[in-house]
Amino acid sequence: MSADLMTAGAEAELQIAVLDTLRADAGVQDVLGSPARIFDGETDAPLFPYVELERHDVRPRGSAGRAGQAHTITFGLRSRSGGRADAVRILSALRQVIDGLGGELATQTVILSQTLYADVMRTPDLREFRGVLRVRIITEEAG
What we know:
Helix content is 32%, strand content 38%. By secondary structure, it is α+β, with helices and mostly antiparallel strands. A 6-stranded mixed beta sheet has the order 1-2-3-6-5-4, covered by helices on one side.
């Protein structure tokens, strides 16, 4: 299997695992409903508040003779009620799950998962708040 196909498979596997873990977390469901409104383009008109996976960048990063990847994933949040405090509460719930993420997937192991950046701002139309959460996840080939 080529390195490009391995990376594409690893990217998809990790992305599915992260989304499934976030959607299943009780704390995330408390702020985003059950099922949690976290999307990867599945809907054109989601209910507020919601989170959407906006970007997933993958770069090679191996160590000790094992193939690995550095994943940078960006989530966007949209909220229309509860103000800035509600948006911060939602980002906090997501961060708790992301920062605790680890373990074995089918073909790789999560070595590190951490928040790189989080921010909340009012949109120019003053009708909603937009949050951004950027995370870094390092994986290695399962041994």
